[in-house]
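Aim 2, interim progress. The first record below pairs a target sequence with its structure tokens.
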Amino acid sequence: MSADVEHAFRAEHGRAVAVLVRVFGDIDVAEEAVQEAFAVALERWSVDGVPPSPAGWIITTARRKAIDRLRREASREDRHAQAVLLAAQQDGPVEEVGPVQDDRLRLIFTCCHPSLGMPARVALTLRLLGGLSTAEIARAFLVPEPTMAQRLVRAKGKIRHAKIPYRVPREADLPERLSGVLAVVYLIFNQGYVGPRAELCEEAIRLGRALATLMPDEPEVWGLLALMLLVHARREARAGGVLLRDQDRRLWDRAMIDEGQAIVRRLLARNQPGPYQVQAAINAVHGEGVTDWPQVVALYDQLLMFTPTPVVALHRAVAVAEVSGPEAALALVDELALERYHLFHAVRAELLTRLGRRAEARQALQAALELTEGEPERALLRDRLAALPTS
């Protein structure tokens, strides 16, 4: 891809697909037409230059390509093509320039419809709004490309056959549906964070920004965006699985941290807390020069009210260790049923080491190593195991 076309693809792919889905009512038709339009752009823009409105050019070209294809198929008595073409001809003029925010919002909610399984929601969102190829999505989620291709085909087929509506939910249904959309975006981010795949994290942040633009009055949308910014800002410092306390803060992206903290301050002023906002606030505290651990414990107490899970309790125990000492934290950790979670054993190992119980710490590190898949985390655990005295 030329740099101009690549930039336009990253910026406008989701927007163009969303407009074409609205016009034709068919995801496959829209997606293929947009792909064709970008292929034409590769040939034309190098000769004619980048048009004043790349988005309008892509949308117009894609619509023409789709209509030409549907006319050919309709002439062969393809009834589906005839129906899609009729729907497109009845639609008003396609929006070529200007805001198409409602179309993208409709497409996000279509991709994340609750009747689709979570893996399908994530894959569709990355494919249609993120513009990632099937191969890229398959690599990100460690599945064979044919498996991911089948998953995408089934998801699009279900949308078509079940007639899943291409619209924003009613206001009464919006909070429940929005939580599912945010969960998909956060899952994409976490997959990139654990991978580690920086491009997936960046894709999730881009989707988060789009949602914040589309739904500026939803505090949890902003909370998720702030959370992702604050965590991703430390990506360089955590290379190799470096723990937060050992990170070189000079490697942190200060501009990204400042943006995330500014969002958190605005959200605090609104006083409409939610789980993503509280997690963002915790990471905003970590972004200061010195972590205020009592404040972190208090924020985890609030987070447990929204998300009373053992994993949240485990992270709270880590903060408790900094306030009340490792013995108090270990008592909390040992009450949690997380034996199959690698961080449970890693946290226990850290607390046992601080208490001088080295043999137990070694056992806990070995248990964590057996349960850990990510190589950076495995390398960190091996280093900690090697550094632990045998006596």
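The second target in this work package is listed in the same format:
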Amino acid sequence: MKRQIVITGWQSKVLTALYEEDTLCELNLEPKKSQVRVGDIYIGKVKHIVQNIQAAFVEITPGVMGYYPLKDNAVHFFVNQKKNDKIVAGDEIVVQVEKENLKTKAWFLTGRLSFPGRYTVLTKGKTGIQISARIKDAAERDRLTGIVSGEEIEGAAWMIRTEASGQRAEVIGEEMHRLEVDYNRIMSTACMRTCFSKLMSGDSPYTQLIKKFAHGSTCRVTTDLPEVYDELKENFGRWGLSEEALQYYKDDSYPLIKLKGIEAQMDKALQKRVWMRSGAYLVIEPTEALTVIDVNTGKAIGKQKMEENFFKINLEAAQEVCRQLRLRNISGIVIVDFINMKDPEHLKALMDVLREEAAKDSVQTTVVDRTSLHLVEMTRKKVHRSLAEQVRLLPV
């Protein structure tokens, strides 16, 4: 698949856009001087223990609080000397930011430190070897397990990602060595650092996309930000990428954001109604508890019978629904009201297409089922703010 990652500026933010086959699929905005980012590792101070919700509130930088669930973090990485493993107010612990401070919630923290690479992920606090469920071939799963099994680390687990399938053992091994070096550095030096120290910075949105997609000749990265270009040029070799995929765009009279028409596309991505090529449209209504998407025939007039026309519109809508979830970064529970169909084969084909499109999302997206009212239930993992929240958010 042909992809392009565009990195440019918008107001006081860095804008990252992902195009697949020249179609905009993802947009992300981040303040140019972001104080806290998903993936950051800090030495935080426990401020409060709230027993009735089994959670601690941990200050990770002065004035910035995080939510640390105790039931998910039975073992804590203490910096201060302790006689027991009980966590109390005043303790200094090493934590990692797992989710953004969505809406009124604090930053979500974990003690299971994660060191992600393109092919593998090293996680403290787990054990064993896990393999992506998307790798189906049994022989390939055995081969990858064999590569990783010789590098097991006590108190940590390896996760083999989908991208590892078919990759040479030497390449995977080199990445694992880099991750192990980072892991050992933090494990050995954390006790020597002061409270609120940042031990590791999480990847920016554009770095995450580049590491995931910018391999081979089918993806190019374009930016008109000199500081971003210099950063990427310095790191492309370390990431095993060819600098030929990196392009610097310079035209002060016609900036990159205008060349790609991103502002107009962003405006459309914030509107309630989404028109499709057939003339049908979606209505996207976010609520506090869930997001509702309604499929309407609109101006779509087909030459086929009514059932066939509805089937064609629903298939187009299934693809557009999944694109909009990515583009708007909608998360949580999603309810889709497709146009009613009676043919069981059409219903099955619709659900198959919806699952295929959802599988393309880098954020975990699940098609649950159809309800008795013929509504389709979906869920999408909450990691980052929605696009609407990112646009409204002031720099931090």
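The chain has three domains: 1-34+204-269, 35-202, 272-388. This observation will shape the mutagenesis plan for the next reporting period.
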